[in-house]
């Protein structure tokens, strides 16, 4: 009994005792198991908690001045076991504030005063200026202690000028078109790992937000139409009858419809002659954004995303008609939502709509995508499905993108790789593969699990996008689709609507498939090393040919061999990463026939190799 008790006190020792390989667990993450907020099964622990806020935001946007003025009423619930003596807010527009630290360049004309806080009320009482402190994108407000299981209300009046030239995920797109994100002060995440998320927004790393409810009232001039996170609650009061009928038609039918055609932008779309207040409501989402235009057209469709309930999702493309590639986007977006619901990751699309908006970036939000136009058809498909795939990761799954970029961008990358050829079978999407091959083994090639906050440039790219995507793909190949989806769905069931950390993913996958994959997780996600296979020799024994493949590197990758015969035919052989579990230096692939072999080639699209010079074996005359 003493031995068992000792093992149970140390999750990393328990892993070692119950499996061939233990994953190294940092001390601050070990603490979550001791507190019972996480469980080594991969599930949330019995003491898991997360905080919550209800936002009611009234915002006014003046396109002629780009001035945003607003009032945010926030009711914040402290579900943690801790007493909070301050509340930390995120003021993301302060990326553009003069003097703010940033890792992305901005135009001098966009550097201004940032978000001005006009007034803060806490429980109805005004907070003196000396009780709150703004440091770039963080604002700390000292309050009376907020006890566990207690709530506190904030009313914040604010204003700022939207950026015009430096479009970093948000800003003016062109005269009469705007994508507006981060438009209100929001309370930072307080979690069981770090307490307050004090990481500043520097423009490179992305976001970490709590699941909250949002009711946003957006007032703009009458000639503008607004699209946003959430469901439009006063659609019938705003749109003229024919446009309202088209929206309703799009929401119930599979076909495509122009809700607003390019020629109709010359007429008034809305009932009002002066201004409209658009009211959107979204429940249990991590963020809320909106976009508007006075000249974009709007194409739409919908589809059943959950056959068990018949629930439908509306899919929109909203764009400047001069961008011809965007006429394909609504169809590509619809196919993406369909593929996600039924093919990968085979999970019903969680939102009531998805709107792809013609912008100046490549950025995802709950129910909204800000995508620049692309002339190349394949690139347009790849961008569309990549950004929409983020619906699952980070939004549905509540990922901390700031620290763990690989837990969301890696999934969007494998989603792009797999879904793009579902939309267009001619596409071979190699996004990021060559970049990893060039960097592998160099100083900038850090372990995937290196915190994203500690990376920049190429390191951040390869560790967020291609390397983790390859890891997911290799596991899918090894397990086979049935077992892989069983594991992945276990992870999704465990953590949707919550905040998983890396080990919640690893352990949920292990538990879901009934196999201990720590040997692969460790070597691919934690360890140094490079992927490097070679054909060392081909042995002929009568009709039998033995192809000997050597692993010169330490990263386990699939083995794909193409045998080219003298008669012009070819044969392909494949082995999953499972062949490297016990760390053999070589494996043997055998074929038996009378054909003369001309060459043997090693490699395939998603299998990186730092030295391809030894991947082709030319047979001597037979």
Topology at a glance:
Blueprint: H1 2-8, H2 11-18, H3 27-35, E1 52-62, E2 67-77, E3 84-90, E4 116-122, E5 125-126, E6 132-135, E7 138-146, E8 151-161, E9 171-174, E10 177-180, E11 186-187, E12 190-191, E13 195-196, E14 212-221, E15 225-228, E16 231-232, H4 235-238, H5 241-252, E17 257-260, E18 275-285, E19 290-293, E20 297-306, E21 311-319, H6 329-342, E22 353-358, E23 362-365, E24 368-371, H7 377-389, H8 391-396, H9 409-423, H10 433-439, H11 457-464, H12 466-479, H13 481-495, H14 502-513, H15 518-526, E25 533-541, E26 544-551, E27 559-565, E28 570-575, E29 586-592, E30 597-602, E31 616-618
Helix pairs in contact: 6-7, 6-9, 7-9, 9-12, 11-12, 12-13, 13-14
What does this structure look like?
With about 625 residues, this protein is α+β, with helices and mostly antiparallel strands. Helices cover about 25% and strands about 30% of the residues. The strands form seven sheets. An eight-stranded mixed beta sheet has the order 5-4-8-2-1-14-18-16, with no helix packed on it. It has a six-stranded mixed beta sheet with strand order 17-20-21-22-24-23, with helices on both faces. A four-stranded antiparallel beta sheet has the order 6-7-3-11, with no helix packed on it. A hairpin with a 4-residue loop joins strand 27 and strand 28. Helix 6 (about 330-340) packs across helix 7 (about 375-390) and helix 9 packs across helix 12. The longest helix is centred in the C-terminal third of the chain and has 15 residues, at about 410-425. The radius of gyration is 27 Å and the shape is globular. The model is unreliable at about 1-20 (pLDDT under 50).
